[in-house]
Amino acid sequence: MLVFQDAAAQRHDTGPHHPERAARLDAVADALASLDLAPRTLAGTRWSDPQETIAFISTLHEVGYIERFRWACLEGRPYLDVVDCAIGPASFDAAVAAAACALAAADAVMIGPGSSAFSAMRPPGHHAEADRAMGFCFFNNVALAAQRLIAAHAQARVAIVDFDVHHGNGTQHLFENRGDVLYISTHQHPATLYPGTGYEWERGRRGTPGEGRTLNIPLPPGSGHAEAIDAFDRLVLPALAAYRPQTILVSAGFDAEARDPLAGLRWTPTTYEAVAQRLADAAVKLAAGRIVTVLEGGYDTHALREGLARYLGAIRSRLND
Ligand SMILES: [Zn+2]
Asked: What is the dihedral of CA 69, 251, 214, 271, to 10 degrees?
């Protein structure tokens, strides 16, 4: 398993009381250390050049938005687009580096069968839309990784499984009219949680190749391990098997855990292990073992450390990676 991380993640300063804070990286570091996983940097990859990364980001995000973000940081603005997207002077560089690590992870799984990769970065990405920041997210890291597999590695079908407790509105919207990306999301029911999208009837844009290529699985507030595993066994895994993705990408948020302060599901560290086993087995069966995981949310540092350790440990042992 290859883990990518860049020091710029530490410098994305969201202020003293923001849940998406640099201290989350300490929890990530603890989880990686418990598995003897040492992150590698972008050195030696094409994504060590920010200009190269920005050029790729512009294949999914509007150039005007990218420039607006860059200038907001240079001018010392406190946030971009919405107050929850707090920024500091180094946030643009951090967001570019987060995209770069996701792109490096996508490239890394193409080196051979049974390869998994993890981008251990912040800011997260799945709320980011083509033209605006939302929900602590600026560039859609997992969507860029999917796009990379399609554009540079000739993949015709990739799947994104998003188990962050929030619906990945940005990821859904970026691909809702395309047939080459299957987007599957489990999340707390949108009537009860930000961002308010992700109803079951959102299934991809009608009359386009994306119709039927979005699968939203809202979970009732207060539900826990049993409901999550039921959703994976009954809905997520059959949808993956029917689509036959060439790579499985994972938007891994750890905020469905019971201790998370932002949401109301009751997943446990064991839930993350069970989910990882299922996704790894699906990757082996369907996608030559290729699985790319990108960090999204998770705001209780204990829950993040334990959930991530159990998740990555299960992927590694199932893949012998
Ligand atoms: Zn989230």
From this structure: -150
| β-bridge pairing 181-188 and 158-162 | parallel
For residue 18, the Cα-to-chain-centroid distance in whole angstroms is: 20
Separation CA 9–CA 290 (nearest Å)? 25
In the set 126, 127, 167, 187, the catalytic residue is 127
Task: Supply the Cα-derived Rg of the chain in whole angstroms.
Answer: 17
The three-class DSSP label of residue 197 is coil
Domain ranges in the chain are 2-319
Q: Please name the residue that has the structure tokens 């290729």.
A: 290
Place of tokens 């844009």: 205
- Residue 128: phi and psi, rounded to 5, are -70, 130
| DSSP assignment string, 274-288 | HHHHHHHHHHHHHST
CATH number for the region 2-319 comes to 3.40.800.20
In 3D space, the residue among 184, 282, 199 whose CA is nearest the CA of residue 235 turns out to be 184
User: Cα(195) to centroid of ligand 1, in Å?
Assistant: 10
What pTM, to 2 d.p., does this model score?
0.98
Q: Can you tell me whether residue 182 is helix, strand or coil? A: strand
Task: State the alpha helices, DSSP H only, in 58-213.
Answer: 63-74, 91-108, 141-152, 169-175
Task: Please name which of 263, 262, 255, 265 lies closest in space to residue 303, comparing C-alpha atoms.
Answer: 255
CA of 160 to the centre of ligand 1 (A): 15
The pLDDT tens digits for 250-294 are 999 999 999 999 999 999 999 999 999 999 999 999 999 999 999
pLDDT per position as a tens digit, 153-204: 999 999 999 999 999 999 999 999 999 999 999 999 999 999 999 999 999 9
| 127 is an active site residue | yes
